[in-house]
Input
Amino acid sequence: MPSNAAPFRRDLIHFGVKKRFVGHLVGLGVIALRLANLFQRRPEEKKVVILEPFGLGDIVSFEPLVRVLKANGYQIAICGKREWKGLYPEGQQLKWIDSELPWVAYDENKKYSFKRYTSRSFRTCLRSLRKWARGAVGLDTRGDIRSVALLRLAGCSRVISVKNYLGTNLKVTPGTAQLIPFDHTLHRWQLNLKFHTALSPGSRLDQIRSPSFEHLSAKQRPDNQRVGLIPVAPWSGKLWAAEKWQKLIKQLQAKKIEVIGLCGPGQMEQTRQELQAVVPLKECDSIESWAAALNECAAVVALDSGPMHLADALGISTIALFGQGKLPLWAPSSSRSRTISHQNDADFVLCQPIDRNASLGRKFMNRITVDEVLAAVEEVLG
Output
C-alpha cells in the first residue's frame, strides 16, 4: 500500500524526534521572550549583530555579507571565538565580541551539559552582547534556536534566522524570528547574503564575489610548487586514512614537488602521526600565522576544515576532501579550487558531526583515492 510518510531526503542531516521536540520547546520559550520584549522595544537602528559561535569556516563565510553591509552604511558587530578576530580588523563600522558558547562541542555530553549554560564565560558573553545589541538586528546564520534565544536575550529589536538548522530536518519554530528559506544549491557565503536581502528587500547581490581577505593575502604569489597538507580537523569523522596521506606524499615528492604539513595549535603530534613522513611541519597558532604559511604554498590539500576555507579565500588553489560535509554548502568557491567527494554513491547519507557518527564519516572519507587527489594537485599546479 502507498505510504503517506514524506520520502527520506538524502540531502538533509536527520535529527531524531526527541531533539526536534526539545528544539520546539525552546522555541516556545523564545516566543514568550519575544512577546515580553515588545513592552520594552527600542526603535530599530541601522546596526546588526552576527552571531557565529562555531568554526573558522563559518566566520570566513561572512566576509561578502560584511562587505555589503559596510557599503550600505550598517554598524556591525560579529560575535565569535576570539581566535578568529584577525579576519575582521575593528574600525568605525565593525566591532568584535568574544564568545565561548555552551553548545560549541562535538561531544554530546558537553554540548548539552547544564553547567556550561551557567558558566562565567557564557554570562560574560551575554553581558557584552546586551551592551551592544539593544536596538540592533540580530542575524543567526545557522538556523539555531539557541542562537535565536541568545539574540532575544541580548535585546535585539528584530532577529532573522535560517528556516532550518544548516541543511537539517531541525526547523526553527515559527514566530521566534523572521525566517529565511534554506537553499540547498548555495554555498554558505551565498546563503548568508540572503540576510542582506531580508534587511534591504529588492537589493541585487548577483555580482558579489566569494570571500576574500585582502589584508591577509600575499601581494605576489610564490614562484614555487610547494603543496601544503592539512590532515587534521576538529571532528574525527573528517579524517582521511593516514596511509593515504603517506602515499600521496611519496608520489608528490617523486614528481619533485615540495611538501609541507600544516596544523593548528596543539595538533602537531596528531599531524605527525597522520603524515608519518620526513616533511617539514608547521604549527599555526593564529589567523596571521595561518595566512603567512598558506601564502607560501602554490596549492593546499585539506580536509573540510576552517584552514581549507581560509586558503580558498586567500586565492590559493585548494583541493578539499569531503566525506560528510554538506555540498555545495561547504565547498570552496574559487575557480582555482577543487572538491573531491563520493557523495553521489548510492549508499551515501549525511549525518550530524558528533563523536558517535565518526565511523560513518570515515567510511566515506576513505573512498577518496590517492590517484584522485594527485590528479587534482597536478591540474591546479598546471
About this structure: The mean pLDDT is 89.
